[in-house]
Amino acid sequence: DIVMTQSPDSLAVSLGERATINCKSSQSILYSSNNKNYLAWFQQKPGQPPKLLIYWASTRESGVPDRFSGSGSGTDFTLTISSLQAEDVAVYYCQQYYFTLPTFGGGTKVEIK
Amino acid sequence: EVQLVQSGAEVKKPGESLKISCKASGYSFPNYWIGWVRQMPGKGLEWMGIIYPGDSDTRYSPSFQGQVTISADRSINTAYLQWSSLKASDTAMYYCSRHVSPNSETYSAYWGQGTLVTVSS
Fold it and tell me: What's residue A1's pLDDT?
């Protein structure tokens, strides 16, 4: 299994400020034949299923605001919320899909300071 | 439009069996991997296992191997998650989720609404 480790577990950011979440995989999830990183980011709000934000490490899902961005390659990845809005309060998860059965990181709770 | 509609909440006693369902519509059910994700109260998301309905190829997370059974019925476009003997620690929300494309290594883009399973004596 590929183990995904997120940091921090939680963070509090002022409205309009930047939030940065890190995700590290236990092995590279960069597939050399297509040069793609098999990493997605999800947002989950209370009482709701997860919502896909980013795939292939940096491709924004349709309809996702452009304040959300993903970066990184190999084993180290970052989700950035450039200007935190009240509606962004949620738990964020990274997920590798290098193998057929994906695995999630432990989650990062984002709150308003 | 792709839709995954899960069966309703369940309250069971330890030792009882249970089978929950995820009915798919809006796409060719046999051709896409569909799986199950557990979320224990106040905790994170865990992939349990995944099945390809076209040939019933099934993969389990080591943590869930032997603890649950994942199956699919192509005739009614439905995936299942079942337990033969529930434990209190099975209390959780369970989500079904479908991969975005027929490829095996791809991300999960579609989610059911979740089924809350409560196991208590």
Answer: 84
